Amino acid sequence: MKKEHVASRFGGDEFTLIIRNAADRKAAGLAIEEIRGCFAKPFLINGTEVHVTLSMGIAMYPQDGTSPEELIKYADAAMYRAKQLGKDNYQFFTDDLKENYKQRLELENELRRALEKEQFEIHYQPQMNIAAGEAVGAEALVRWRHPVRGLVPPNEFIPIVEDTGLIIPLGEWIIRTVCRQIKAWADEGLPVVKIGVNLSARQFQTKSIVDSIRTILEETGIDPAYLQLEITESMAMSNNNLIQTLEQLEGLGVHISIDDFGTGHSSLLYLKKFPIQGLKISKEFIQELHEAQNQAIVAAIITMGKHLHLNVTAEGVEYEEQAELLQAMGCDDIQGYLYSKPLPRQQFEQFMMHKTGLPS
Question: How many CA atoms lie within 13 A of 237 on its CB side?
Answer without folding.
Answer: 24
